[in-house]
Write a structure and sequence with these properties.
By secondary structure, the protein is an alpha/beta fold. The chain has 15 helices and 20 strands. Strands 1, 2, 7, 8, 9, 10 and 19 form a seven-stranded mixed beta sheet that branches. A three-stranded mixed beta sheet has the order 11-18-20, with helices on one face. The chain has a three-stranded antiparallel beta sheet with strand order 13-12-17.
Length: about 500
Amino acid sequence: MTESTTDVLVIGSGIAGSAAALAAARGGAEVTIATKATRPRGASSWWAQGGIAISKNDREQFKRDILAASDDTADPAAVDILVNEANEVVKDVLRETLEVEFDRNGDSLDFGQEAAHSDERILHVDASTGKAIHVPFLNYLEARDNVEIEENTTALELIRHDGRVFGAMLEHEGNIESTFAGATILATGGIGELYPDSTNPAGMTGGGVAMAALAGASVADMEYVQFHPTVCVDADEQFLVSEAVRGEGAVLRNGDGERFMPEYHDDAELAPRDVVARSVESEREKTGEVRLDTSPLDFAEQFPDLVELCETNGIDHHEGIPVAPAEHFICGGIVVDERGRSSVDNLYAVGETARTGVHGANRLASTGLLEGLVWGLRAGEDAVSVAHRTPVATRTIETPELLDTDPELPDQFARDKLQRLRGIMAEDVGLERTPVGLKRAQTGLRQLKGEVDAYVRTRTSRSLYELRNATVTALLIAQAAEENAQSRGTHYLVEDPLPEATR
């Protein structure tokens, strides 16, 4: 087992982790980015289609839209930070530093509109905005002398001492390294692996949330799991159909060819995501399918990347794109303050891993990249001062005892158990939940966690630790959902079915 030290350790390489690394590097810190991704497709940010929202000239209206989409559960103070800093951080980092070429309409930037936005305020690059941002971001960081990027590297455990975090145990191709850091920033992305269908890339097991929770950090709003309403799940490789397509006029039709969203919400296809997702699922159950009709717009001209995805996957978009809801984003996570600081000293969280309070019960479209950028910069800047006043004396810190790595034997065990976990989450902790189902889910997940913990005690492997993280995070979601008896946003409770004998 080897050792290394760094000022700031960033775990994750999406826009939030990259922004944190950028701010820390600008502050003169030595930064190590550890990411399980192999660039660039392995990070969630790469897959973001719609774009990044900014305030333009009306911060108050942007704030009102965010609060309304959240069902008035978002933290107004956190939303103020987001909308007040949106224009400047996008200009500084994306347009001037990375020179991202956002789409233009003549000489002006082309702003799009998406569900629950009252204005056209979304900057985009076709339907591949995440890719257009993420690739140059990583290239820019890699060119800096004080930033090291370790790919295909997984964090197994946080290193703790006297109630503080001093880095993490990292695994790379079977080798384990103790990486000590003055400040540690978790930016591990979402929870897509917990559900059978998700817009996330592979490997999103909620690792940051699980590691932080096991280290004693507070978590909140874990029940608020957002499902994107328009994901082409019938394709060879399922893909998300951006909200921007509906913003440009596409409509949803059920298996009978009828447009149905006006019956569910006054804003029809541009209603909040949780409303559209449940409506799509309801119509699929009633009529067998739902298709996104793109004929009202020039789909090929406006969204050539999506046209290519359709063609690659054998989908004829002229007949409508078959869509269904799939897990997309968790609104809760590690509780952090305005600087991304968790309740455990020296430990930060940013991006989807964090619960900043911006999203509440439901996230407004195209605010995910923006939140990651704003809080990533804030956390990275703050982490520099923490790292400089917290010298890492590695000789006084005991690292977690990990067994010799066993990369082969546990893999099938992990795959089988993860499949079981996904079944539990899809059945009882999905778009609609019942009190009975949530209790049943917790029983199944606790039993599963016990089996996983027993196995982890006998060997070490990436797949086992990712499975452990998945079970911890899934349990946190199910527990939070059961404890919240009020349907809000993405947490939607229905009555338990009557027992057979009473029907």
